[in-house]
Amino acid sequence: MRKAGQRERTVLIKGGSAPPEGEAWLVVEPGTAREHRIDIHDQPLVIGGVKECDVVLKDRSVSRKHAEIRRTAGGIVLRDLGSRNGTYVERISIKEAVLRSGARLRIGMTDLAFETGDENGRLTRLARGEVDDEALKEVPPQFAPVIGSSTALRRTCALLAKLASSDLTVTLIGETGTGKEVLARAVHACSPRAGKPFIVFDCGAVAPNLIESELFGHKKGAFTGAVAEHRGAFERAQGGTLFLDEIGELSLDLQPKLLRVLERRTLQPVGGSEEVKVDVRILAATNRDLESRVREGEFRDDLFFRLSMALIPVPPLRERREDLSALVDGFLAEIDKPLKVLPETLAILERHDWPGNVRELKNVIAGAAVLASGPALDPKHLALFKPQRRAPAVEALPLAGQTLETIEQAAIEQTLRRFDGNKTKAARALGIAASTLYEKIRKYTKRTKGN
C-alpha cells in the first residue's frame, strides 16, 4: 500500500513506465519488413529528415529536425522540435510526453514504437500475446469468479494479476456486459488493499447535478436539500479501491476536478473550505473509445493520459466462445440449478453473437432455468431466446445524405421499440449512459414539438 506522502506510480499498458535507466529502444516501422531498433543511450536522439539527425526518416512529411528523445530524471521523454506536421503518441498530438513501454508513436507518416527490456516490457509483450502459456498460468485464486479458460481471458487476467500488487491506475476497456466490474473486484481482492473498502461509482448513472457531491461529498447547507454532511465516494473508499465505472460518461466540467484529485490526492467537498486527504487506488472502466472522444473534444487529453497509464482490453464473449460452457455451468450453480446442459442446447447458444456479452448470457440462462423441470437444460427451455448474428455493417445501411442527428434519432427510436420503451435496456444496448439517453430524448422531443 502507498505510504503517506508517496506519489503514485503509473504505467501505460501497451507497456509499463519507462525508468530513466535500463534498456530502451526506439522501433522504426514496427511489424514491417523494414523494422529496425535503435538503442536509446544517455545522449539525446534527434529524429528528422536530414543526415545530421541521429535517426533519419526518409519521409517527406518529416521536418528537418522533427523531434527528440532523451533520458531525464523523470523518465524517457519525447519532445516535438516545432515540426510542421506534429508528433503523436497513441494518436494524440503532443509537445512533450514521458514515454511508456509499448507506446505507439507517429512522426510525419512514419510509425514508431517505444519499448523497454525490463518487467514493463514483459507486460507489453503479454498484452500483445507475445508470451508463452507459462505466463498465462500466473493468475491467483482471487480471479476465480472470472469464469473461463480461453486464451484471451487468461491473458487479460494474467496481466491484471501482475498489476494488482501495485497502486497503478488501471482502466478496463470493453463492451457493456463483459464483466469489467468482476475483473476490478478481482484486482482489489489480490492487492494489498484487499481488507479495505471497494467502492463502485457509476459515472453514467448519477444525475449530472449530483455527480460532484457524490464523488467528493458535501457540507451541510452546501445547496438546497443538503440537510446533513455527506461523505463522497473518494472518502468512503479511504485506504481501499475506488472503481470509476463508465468513466467516459463524465461531463467535461467535472473532468478537471477529478484530475486535480487524482494528481494531488486531496479533495474539497462541495461547500467546504478545507482540503481532505485521500488515499485510494483508482480502477476505471469504459465501453467508449477514449482516444476518439479526446479528438472530438469530449474528453480532456490530460485526464486521458492520467487514466491511460494501464489500458487493459476486456474481450467480448463472441471472441471467447469456448468459455460458453463454463459460464453456463457457473450461472446454473449460482442459482442452485445444477442442470446438465445438452450439446444441442449449447450449439444454439453458440450461434448467437451476444451483443450484451456475459450479462446477456446470464439473463438467458436464468430464464431458461425457470422453464426447466427435469435434470437437463434442453433446447425447448430456450423458448424465450432468439439467437441472432450481429447487425449488418453500418457501411451497408442507406445512411448517405442523412444528417447525423437524423441517424441518431432513428437509432434511439428503433432501440426503444426493441426494448418496449425500457430506457435502461435501450441505453445499455446503445452503449451510452441512461442519463445521456434521457437528455437526447428530451432534445429530440423538443425539436419534434417545435416542428
Write a concise keyword list for the protein shown above:
single chain; 451 residues; alpha/beta; five-stranded mixed β-sheet; 15 helices; 18% strand; disordered N terminus
Radius of gyration: 25 Å
Distance between the termini: 59 Å
Individual helix count: 15
Strand order of the largest sheet: 2-1-11-10-7-8
Spans of at least 5 consecutive residues whose pLDDT stays below 50 are 1-17
Strand content: 15-25%
Report the principal-axis shape. globular
Helix content: 25-40%
SS-based class: alpha/beta
Mean pLDDT: 83
Give the biggest sheet.
6 strands, antiparallel
Per DSSP E runs of 2 or more residues, the count of β-strands stands at: 20
Describe the structure concisely for a colleague.
With 451 residues, the chain is α/β, with parallel strands linked by helices.
If you had to describe this structure to a student in words, what would you say it looks like?
The model is unreliable at 1-17 (pLDDT under 50). The protein starts with 23 loop residues before the first strand and ends with a helix. α3 (151-164) crosses α4, α10 packs across α12 and α13 crosses α14. It has helices at 119-128, 133-136, 151-164, 180-189, 211-216, 233-236, 255-264, 290-295, 301-307, 324-334, 343-350, 357-371, 404-418, 423-430, 434-450, and strands spanning 24-28, 36-39, 45-48, 55-56, 65-72, 75-80, 87-89, 92-94, 96-98, 104-107, 110-116, 170-173, 198-202, 241-245, 266-267, 276-277, 281-286, 311-313, 340-341, 376-377. The protein is α/β, with parallel strands linked by helices and 451 residues long. The strands form 5 sheets. Strands 2-1-11-10-7-8 form a 6-stranded antiparallel β-sheet.
